[in-house]
Amino acid sequence: MARIRGVEANEAGLFTRFLYWMTRRKVGRVILPFKITAHQPRLLFAVGGMEMGQQALRTVDAKLKVLAEIKAATLVGCPF
């Protein structure tokens, strides 16, 4: 459970609501770390740019990337 309450869509600005929509479309829901980062829209934009840049890299096979993500998530105890 997070100590900080996330920003809900009805409290968010236009840019953040657009990002929420994109996240729901891609992931199926808006995850809590994303909602917490939304308290600072500039930071949210930067994190999104970093994620898109990492996803666009073609130097590592996609299957290997997914396996690495799963392994890292299990090491840190990530629930999803």
The tally of domains stands at 1
Alpha-carbon Rg, integer:
14 Å
Give the integer mean of the pLDDT values.
Answer: 86
Shape call: globular
How is the biggest beta sheet arranged? none
Can you walk through the features of this model?
The longest helix has 16 residues, at 41-56. The protein has one domain (14-76). The mean pLDDT is 86. It is an all-alpha fold and 80 residues long. The chain is 64% helix and 0% strand.
Question: What secondary-structure arrangement, pairings included, does this model have?
Answer:
Blueprint: H1 14-27, H2 32-37, H3 41-56, H4 62-76
Quick recap:
64% of the residues lie in helices and 0% in strands.
